[in-house]
Specification:
Elements lengths: L2 H21 L4 E2 L9 H7 L3 E2 H5 L7 H18 L3 H8 L3 H14 L8 H14 L6 E3 L7 E4 L2 E8 L2 E9 L13 E5 L2 E2 H9 L7 H11 L2 E3 L10 E7 L5 E7 L1 E4 L14 H4 L1 E3 L1 H14 L1 H12 L1 H4 L10 E2 L7 E8 L2 E8 L7 H12 L7 E4 L5 E3 H7 L12 E3 L4 H9 L14 H10 L7 E2 L3 H5 L9 E5 L6 H11 L4 E4 L9 E5 H7 L20 E9 L19 E2 L4 H5 L3 H12 L5 E9 L2 E9 L3 E6 L2 E7 L3 E8 L6 E8 L2 E9 L1
Parallel strand pairs: 1-11, 16-17, 17-21, 21-22, 22-25
Antiparallel strand pairs: 2-12, 3-24, 4-9, 4-12, 5-6, 7-8, 7-10, 10-11, 13-18, 14-15, 15-16, 19-20, 19-24, 23-24, 26-27, 27-30, 28-29, 28-31, 31-32
């Protein structure tokens, strides 16, 4: 290189370096933006503080309280935790021994020698997190229990040429900055490259597989539900980013702590009820979703309040227009809209949660919404859904398929304590809880040495099949690694019953294959019916602390019958890599891909109306994609006819009063559609 060229290169390098240094934002951004948040969440954020102020409110934890917490954790792991053998083998951990050592240290300790309460909580969290089970949790006491720590922006991942990129996608209302805007790319996090920072964050969470850990690590960069994780170590973060003009900058942002909003939906997991016993929910995901709603979708919070105040105003019987949402009674649960793609117009049904107290009402509302959407193809989107009521997730499957639904069977681990619980609720006087099916095999394990009980479904078979198919078009299910628990069970049932195509934005779902019970529920189960069990090992926990445990593991049906869901998750038919346009313009490429898949799947139609009179039922049927229709009355076959696309009318004799009319539609000899009508 000539001397002239060297000098020119040196000048360019020097100029670029100077511009870069001048481009950094040196100011620290405080919490003033909270003064301008959306009115729907203003009262909630009135209780927000900076992290340093929150840390001053943390009290101490006595020696006796610590002993009680360790003792109760030992009971859950040793006597209730259904995945213990599996987790020990798969992850090489030993939570029982860790708790023994912790108990031993506490027995030797003096109150004056105790480490801080934060250190104790940290050790308990590490033990629970070591088994990588988002159902099995140490839930921190007050002041952590009802709060979350957050930064005022959301970071999401997209791919370009196979490489991941991390951009800011949403800001809290009221937060503004001249350069830090949606679309800027995050490069560094407190001096650590962003991909490594996500890995470090993932270690604080309990994702069951690599995809789940990565997703939790990404969420944990900006939102921390403090009931499940300790506050950040740093009072603020220094974010290195590239702005929309390609200039490298830095932003210093304080952490804030706020109470999360009591949700309008869901089940009291500590209550003695059929709903509490049928829970399959990731608590951390539920709170994270609620926090995101408060921070980035306060209009949804406002809509939930409006729906609760005036339910009738939320109802609609009008067909949806393209990109227009249909009003729903369950605002935080469903979002239904028609989407226009290059492959055609299809229905898009987003299910944010299965955490409802009334699964029957949940299914009924889904049916109402889906009947207002196009019938030629449906996109069911469960990304980010942390689960909820297992009956709701498995009961919904019947709406989408003519097949009989086999709910996933579940097993207890065989222990004397689980036997006591099940025996106590063989014949519950309230009729809400019946654990009798599991009793014989747990009792027999004393002789057989079997690790697990026999398997029986949590969702009653009758409930899972009482309504039958209501949507006859093709269905694509979109999943991600944040799908957990009852949503894992839903995705497994969708795949096992061959309902449609699964398109995953991650390699698999979160892999939470269990029913979860709280420590408080376990205490109650041994307290009723009266008199309470005098030898119950469950003792009250101090200061609002709680624990949860995976109590019954779920097994798959169909071609993968007997395979556990835990840790393995559900592998999609194909993987989709999110694009920048997806993150910034409403999942446009993702929905186009789903529409393309739907356009290559067969469309069916089976609409039926009936008129009864003069010893017969007159049936008007509209069919598409069918060649034969079989009719049953109260389970007995009465007629079989050949059909073509279009409308046809025929009569069926009716000699005695009937209750149920069923239609089975075939393409050649393949059973492809059904319809049930109550007479």
């Amino acid at each position: 290189m000539s001397q002239v060229n060297v000098s020119r290169a040196q000048r360019i390098t020097s100029t670029q370096r100077t511009a870069r240094l001048h481009s950094y934002d040196k100011e620290k951004i405080g919490l003033e933006f909270l003064d301008d948040v959306h009115p729907a969440v203003k009262d909630q954020f009135a209780g927000a503080t900076d992290l340093q102020t929150f840390l001053k409110s943390i009290g101490d934890l006595s020696l006796d309280d610590r002993k009680r917490l360790v003792e109760q954790a030992f009971v859950l792991f040793n006597d209730n935790f259904v995945h213990l053998p599996f987790k020990v083998a798969m992850h090489g951990v030993n939570p029982i021994q860790k708790l023994r050592l912790m108990k031993h240290r506490l027995e030797q300790a003096k109150a004056s020698d105790l480490e801080s309460a934060l250190s104790f909580h940290s050790e308990m969290l590490m033990i629970f997190n070591s088994v990588r089970d988002l159902h099995t949790n140490y839930l921190l006491p007050f002041p952590f229990a009802d709060k979350f720590a957050f930064l005022p922006f959301q970071i999401e991942e997209y791919f370009e040429n196979g490489e991941p990129h991390y951009i800011v996608t949403r800001l809290v209302q009221g937060f503004s900055h001249p350069q830090f805007k949606p679309g800027v790319e995050i490069k560094m996090w407190n001096g650590v490259p962003i991909r490594r920072a996500i890995e470090l964050s993932a270690d604080l969470h309990a994702g069951s597989n690599l995809a789940a850990r990565h997703a939790r690590g990404l969420d944990g960069l900006t939102i921390r539900p403090l009931i499940r994780s300790l506050p950040p170590d740093a009072l603020w973060v220094v974010i290195g980013y590239t702005d929309l003009n390609g200039v490298e900058r830095e932003l210093k942002q304080e952490w804030a702590v706020a109470p999360y909003r009591p949700t309008y939906i869901g089940t009291d997991a500590d209550s003695l009820s059929a709903s509490a016993v049928a829970q399959g929910v990731d608590l951390e995901a539920q709170i994270t979703q609620e926090a995101k709603k408060m921070l980035f979708a306060p209009e949804v919070v406002a809509a939930e309040v409006a729906a609760a105040a005036d339910q009738q105003a939320m109802l609609s019987t009008q067909q949806a227009l393209p990109d227009q949402e249909i009003p729903t009674l369950m605002v935080g649960v469903f979002r239904a809209q028609r989407v226009k793609t290059p492959s055609g117009e299809f229905g898009h049904m987003r299910i944010f949660t299965f955490n409802v107290d009334d699964p029957q009402a949940f299914i009924k509302e889904f049916i109402r919404l889906v009947e207002l959407l196009p019938q030629n193809g449906l996109i069911v989107d469960v990304r980010g859904n942390g689960g909820g009521h297992i009956w709701a997730s498995e009961g919904l499957l019947q709406v989408l398929t003519p097949r009989d639904i086999s709910p996933e069977p579940t097993q207890f681990i065989n222990t004397p304590l689980n036997l006591r619980i099940c025996q106590r609720h063989e014949k519950n006087p309230t009729g809400q809880i019946d654990l009798s099916p599991w009793v014989p095999s747990i009792r027999q394990s004393v002789e057989t040495g079997a690790a697990y009980s026999s398997s029986f479904p949590i969702t009653p078979v009758d409930f899972a099949n009482q309504i039958g198919q209501k949507y006859h078009g093709p269905v694509v299910l979109i999943t991600d690694a944040r799908c957990y628990s009852a949503t894992d069970i839903f995705a497994a049932g969708f795949q096992d019953h061959e309902i449609g195509y699964i398109l995953g934005v991650d390699d698999n779902t979160g892999a939470g294959g269990a029913n979860v019970w709280t420590h408080a529920l376990l205490r109650t189960l041994l307290s009723v019916p009266a008199p309470p069990d005098p030898e119950t090992p469950y003792k009250p926990l101090p200061n609002g602390a709680n624990m949860r445990v995976a109590i019954r593991r779920s097994l798959r049906v169909g071609k993968q019958s007997g395979t556990p869901v835990e840790d393995l998750g559900i592998t999609p038919n194909s993987r989709y890599y999110m694009t920048r346009k997806d993150l910034l313009t409403g999942n446009v490429d993702l929905l186009n891909k789903a529409g393309e898949i739907l356009s290559h799947m067969p469309v069916r139609k089976l609409n039926v109306t009936t008129t009864t009179g003069s010893g017969k039922i007159t049936i008007q049927a509209e069919t598409l994609g069918l060649t034969r229709l079989d009719i049953y009355i109260d389970g007995r076959p009465v007629k079989s006819i050949d059909v073509t696309d279009g409308k046809q009318s025929f009569d069926v004799p009716l000699s005695t009063p009937a209750r149920l009319l069923e239609f089975a539609g075939f393409k050649a000899n393949e059973y492809v559609a059904s319809r049930m009508i109550n007479l």
